[in-house]
Write the structure tokens for this entry.
Amino acid sequence: MMSEKRLLLLNGPNLNMLGTREPEHYGSHTLAMVEDDCTALATSLGFRIDCLQSNHEGELVTAIQNAIKTHDVIIFNAGAYTHTSIALRDALSLFDGIAIEVHLSNVYARESFRHKSMIAPVVNGVVAGFGAQSYLSAIHAASGLLQQQTKS
Ligand code: DHK
């Protein structure tokens, strides 16, 4: 197993409402359930995980800036800021670990304003459309990328 790496699970606006929010798009898992499932998986893969949710763009920027010094991986569902935030994109550009953009819903099957991501160009990859499973797939992907890096 790889040595302990630090993973930040970051969720943006309205994701604290999971469980009751538009279940046809976001499913029935609460944020606490998502965080518990991610914690179990991340721990089993050798990560130390921190979970943070904020409805405020500036707090998310600060969380990313802090993670530059402390974390190896950011798994990030920026919610609606995905589609609008140059500030979050600029912050992610400064992060030289692995960053993965996550969405519960298939944003490409929804309104056209959700088809554009400001942050996709500055992350390693995007997982969208698999409900709460999107987060778990992103954690597996980050683990695989870190293992590749260790080998090369
Ligand atoms: C979550 C949101 O809050 C939306 O604003 C995005 C994303 C989609 C999701 O599917 O997780 O457009």
In short: The two ends are 16 Å apart (CA to CA). The chain has a mean pLDDT of 96.
